[in-house]
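Review form for a predicted model. The reviewer records the input and the model, then writes brief findings.
Reviewer: anonymous (R2)
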Amino acid sequence: MHFAIRLVGALALIFLTAPAHAQDYPTKSIRLIVPFPPGGPNDIIARVVAAKMSELIGQPIVIDNRGGAGGVLGTDAVAKAEPDGYTIAITSAGALAISKSLQEKLPYDTLKDLKPVTLVAKVPELLVVANNVPAKSMPELLALAKAKPGQLNFASTGPGSMPHLAGELFKSAAGIDIVHVPYKGAAPAVNDIIGEQVQMVFLDIPVLLPQVQAGKVRPIAIGSRERAPSLPDVPTTGEVGLPQIEAENWYGMVAPAATLPAVIAKLHRITAEALKSPEVRDKLSSQGAILVGNTPEEFAAYIQSEIDKWGKVAKAANIKAGQ
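Model under review:
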């Protein structure tokens, strides 16, 4: 009898304190894991958004850079963290969607071990060619590729990366034979296309924007449905007759799966508010990022659609991690 009373009392305490915890949240600093080294697109986006969020909630948001395995290590740290809302992440398409198709066994299940909060930003992939390539438009590039099958190369930031998958999608959609040349990151790939060692590459707009503006590479198309404000004269892939080529890197906020719904709702509300602020929009839109801030349910559906989409591309091209 006494045990039953104590049990009922303990359960009542749990149900009473859970909403109170959610209502008061956050009462201390939040750790925001970025699963890549400082200075990259994921890190830049996370720092700009976190600074505004911190201002809105009145608590510090501490960036914790945990690079490794294409974002998988840092994302796994969130999946295994205490679900109290004080360890979250802004992580990438690679870690949340693409890796599922490339790695035989991930240490986490994206939609079971993580709770989507919101899609923070999309960064379209921009297709550029080296200045020695005699093509100034998509029709001219396709004609050149079809006239020289297997002779044109496309660079990527590594096997299974978004630039690699975008290139493979381009190959299949356009019916062309171009050769993949993997690099260890964006910097060496950009150096070699400027040096005219490779003919073309898909990369995040912020990575290529300075090179386009300096005339060191020639833009052909943007892999999104809408033109980029930072490159208003560059057509989309849809506008040049290849609407099936939508390739956007993206970065979203996630928390441990068991995080209270009220905490997720508050995180979403604050993040969405931060994304609407003029200073955040000015800093990130000028670099080619498209800010989103959708609901947790919409983000979960988007992740699943990206898992399905890139899984088909990887299977068709027989791509595995490290290949």
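Findings: The chain has a mean pLDDT of 91.
Further findings: The domain at 124-222 is CATH 3.40.190.10 (D-Maltodextrin-Binding Protein; domain 2).
Recommendation: see findings above.
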